[in-house]
TrEMBL record:
Hydrolase in keyword set: yes
Membrane-crossing segments per the record: none
One Pfam short name: His_Phos_1
Primary enzyme class: hydrolase
InterPro entries: His_Pase_superF_clade-1, His_PPase_superfam
EC annotation from Swiss-Prot or TrEMBL: 3.1.3.-
Upper lineage: Bacteria, Pseudomonadati, Pseudomonadota, Alphaproteobacteria, Rhodobacterales
One MF annotation (Gene Ontology) recorded for this entry: hydrolase activity
Entry superkingdom: Bacteria
CDD domains (UniProt xref): HP_PGM_like
Protein name in the entry: Phosphohistidine phosphatase SixA
Keywords in alphabetical order: Hydrolase
Gene this protein is translated from: sixA
Length: 163
């Protein structure tokens, strides 16, 4: 059996209001457009998550909302600026659903994506800019068996390629 993991860095956030904490920063105009385009891309390519695990930061929640997915979503404070080990821990705790989407932050989400596959790929993958999205297939029957290095990169996109 193969399970699919989609890893997404939140779309571009705004820095217009210096009084906001990092956790409270919303998406900027480009980020809102990018998140909408990523949602269209996910649906067009048939990447329909059965579960979404999302950081509780404003920019990740706005990214999730603009994806316009009709699926169960869990907003988790533990995913805010989480390192790869925490992301993997939460993936292990996911129910047995065929496809899980995680929306989080750099540097953790980029390091997690690179760790999950055997070969990291192109420069954009290594940079993992805002909105970067990896689709990773894992030859496992349940999420508890997910481990680093055993996934294969099925697809990768950044918003600049979509808009």
């Amino acid at each position: 059996m193969t399970l699919r993991l989609i890893l997404m860095r939140h779309a571009k956030s705004g820095w217009d209001d210096p009084s906001l904490s990092d956790h409270e920063r919303p998406l900027n105009k480009r980020g809102r457009q990018s998140a909408t385009a990523l949602g269209v891309w996910l649906r067009r390519e048939g990447y329909f998550p059965d579960l979404v695990l999302c950081s509780d930061a404003v920019r990740t929640r706005e990214t999730l909302d603009r994806l316009n997915l009709e699926t169960e979503a869990r907003v988790l404070s533990a995913l805010y600026l989480a390192p790869p080990g925490i992301l993997l821990q939460h993936l292990h705790q996911s129910e047995q659903m065929p496809t899980v989407l995680m929306i989080a932050h750099n540097p953790g989400i980029a390091a997690f994506a690179a760790a999950m596959i055997a070969a990291p790929g192109d420069t954009d993958f290594r940079r993992y800019p805002t909105g970067a999205t990896s689709v990773i297939d894992l030859p496992i029957a349940d999420w508890e068996r997910a481990k680093t290095g055993n996934g294969s990169l099925a697809d990768f996109i950044i918003p600049r390629q979509l808009i």
